[in-house]
Specification:
Blueprint (H helix, E strand, L loop, with lengths): L11 E4 L8 H14 L5 E4 L5 H6 L9 E3 L10 E3 L2 H5 L4 E4 L6 H7 L9 E6 L2 H14 L5 E9 L6 H12 L6 E9 L2 H10 L13 H14 L9 H4 L8 H11 L2
Parallel strand pairs: 1-5, 1-6, 2-4, 2-5, 6-7, 7-8
Antiparallel strand pairs: 3-4
Length: about 260
């Protein structure tokens, strides 16, 4: 993977949905990992009381510190991971993993982390209930002016309802005054490699053989787009998919089938 720095004017990325089981922690961990691999300076705040993100990043070796530097060498070791809002407030650039709660954003605001128009809120959805949660999230943050980007996450290629889920997400973009954007790729489910990555405390693209999967290709496409500042004009299938030819054809076919007009 390239480690060149890219232009990115974002300073905060919040991963949030009111509903559980949408893969928030998985996305937050990989977004943070990718950004620092690109030479950008980012920290991660784990605002979920279960602290799944910090557990993942430490390979389940976290001993309860309020803030820590990740083990290892290179750019990753410069990223501060914290469960403490005061430490997070001192970060210039921050990825936030939130709990599946309707009070999550209010809790962040009370701790001093308030969404503003320059922030990016990534809202993963997986199934109908995730879609419902995305609507509530968009309504909640409308006053802040921050961008809300829905990501179809953990999509099962064998699920007959996958195309309906994509259509439901697309319909959100058409709702007047809702202000939702939809990332134009789905991230297929791959429990085997994602579980291995979590247990070993690393991003899934560092797992042997996982790099050839479309799950990794789609996940990296999302992370690359965010690393470039999430430009709306680049959120198109033709621009997001270069390089996916090396990934499994089944996943590539899924993208074309689901997103075809």
């Amino acid at each position: 993977m390239s480690t060149r720095s890219t232009e990115n004017n974002l300073s905060r990325v919040v991963v949030h949905n009111h509903k559980g089981g949408t893969g928030k922690t998985m996305l937050a961990v990989h977004i943070a990992e990718y950004l620092v691999e690109q030479g950008q300076e980012w920290d991660l705040m784990d605002a979920d009381p279960q602290h799944n993100a910090v557990s993942w990043l430490t390979g389940h070796a976290w001993s309860g510190e309020a803030a820590l530097q990740l083990p290892g060498e290179g750019r990753r070791s410069k990223m501060t991971v914290t469960v403490d809002p005061e430490t997070a407030l001192s970060s210039t650039r921050l990825v936030v993993d939130t709990p599946p709660s309707e009070d999550s954003l209010e809790d962040l605001q009370r701790s001093g982390i308030e969404l503003v128009s320059d922030d990016l809120l990534i809202c993963p959805v997986s199934g109908r209930f995730g879609i419902d949660g995305a609507i509530k999230v968009a309504e909640e943050v409308r006053v802040s002016g921050c961008r809300v980007v829905v990501v179809l996450n953990m999509t099962d290629p064998d699920d007959d309802y996958a195309s309906e889920e994509v259509q439901a997400a697309r319909d959100l973009e058409e709702v007047e005054n809702l202000g939702i954007e939809v990332f134009k790729m789905t991230i297929p489910r791959n429990d085997k490699y994602l579980r291995q990555a979590e247990l070993q405390g690393m991003p899934v693209w560092d797992i042997p053989y996982a790099r050839s999967t479309h799950t990794v290709g789609a996940l990296q496409a999302l992370c690359r787009w965010i690393a470039e500042g999430a430009p709306p004009e680049a959120n198109r299938m033709g621009q997001l998919t270069p390089g996916l030819a090396n990934h499994q054809g089944r996943g590539e076919d899924l993208q074309e089938r689901l997103w075809e007009q």
